[in-house]
Amino acid sequence: MNNNRRPLVLANWKMNMEPQEVGPYLDTILPEVEKDTDADVAVAGQDLYLAQMVAKVKGSQLAIAAQDAHWEDQGAFTGETSPKALSTIGVSYVMIGHFERRKFFNETDERVNLKTKAALKNGLKPIVDLDEDLSAYDGQAIDQVELSQLKKALTGISEEEMKDVTIAYEPTWAIGSGEAASAEQAEKSAALIRASLANLYNQDLANQTRILYGGSVNTSNAASFFKQADIDGILVGKAALNPQTFLDLIDIAQQA
Ligand code: 13P
């Protein structure tokens, strides 16, 4: 982590959490998030909970994120979620291009780019996810996959707009497997992403952009990621389903 960049701790609930668990979860973490403001904290819930979540955290430091959004503001797109509507109800962040969207819902780099632009246009802060395929896990190939995803995702996005963009690096093989990347592996990729941002834009912009690591983050390994120069936060799935564990992860970020 670098002091010029504010850490971000993001819980991705995915398609989890019962309706009756949403309020108590937020009640558990809200008072703690208020105490410390050394890190940004956000929770990404299922769409049907977002309005309730936004209402609950109103006036607090806790931000709410969506897990995806369409690239059009409105129209005949049955089952999709409008980025404009998300922004109107008070959602702050939107994840775009998560590995599970790419794998199960045919998300393409082109759509990730359209969705990132649409999010920015609507005042949402996109968290652009780069994954890496296990089949390509042999050094060079990984770099190529994630860098090509990065370049395509950011096509046509201005330097000014990049101030609101966070990049998340999530190795496919580490997601939900219980086997996180080592801090060194993750740092290598984050540094590479930062170097690419410097190439695509400039060094200043690269230095300002937040890069998260995600994939089997837990309370035992989280601190090791924050120790890395180019990792500015964590994107947490399973471990964040327990509010107490998520609180512990927030604490680790505050102390980093
Ligand atoms: P896990 O923390 O469950 O591996 O999930 C990571 C992830 O996909 C977060 O977006």
Structure summarized in a few sentences:
With 256 residues, the protein is α/β, with parallel strands linked by helices.
Structural description of this entry:
It is a single chain. With 256 residues, the chain is α/β, with parallel strands linked by helices. It has helices spanning 19-35, 47-57, 83-89, 99-104, 109-121, 140-153, 159-162, 183-200, 203-208, 222-226, 243-255, and strands at residues 8-12, 40-44, 62-66, 93-96, 125-132, 166-171, 210-214, 233-236. It has one domain: TIM Barrel. It has eleven helices and eight strands. It has an eight-stranded parallel barrel with strand order 1-2-3-4-5-6-7-8, surrounded by six helices. The protein is globular, with a radius of gyration of 17 Å. The mean pLDDT is 93. 1,3-dihydroxyacetonephosphate binds next to β8.
> CATH fold name, please?
TIM Barrel
SS field, number of helical segments: 11
Q: Report Rg.
A: 17 Å
Spans with pLDDT under 50 lasting ≥5 residues?
none
- Beta-strand percentage range: 15-25%
The biggest sheet, with number of strands, parallel, antiparallel or mixed sense and barrel status, is: 8 strands, parallel, barrel
In angstroms, what separates the terminal alpha carbons?
Answer: 8 Å
The shape is globular
The CATH fourth-level homologous superfamily:
Aldolase class I
The set of bound ligands, ions and cofactors reads: 1,3-dihydroxyacetonephosphate
Q: What's the total number of strands? A: 8
Helix content: 40-55%
Count of domain modules? 1
CATH domain class name? Alpha Beta
User: What is the SS-derived class?
Assistant: alpha/beta
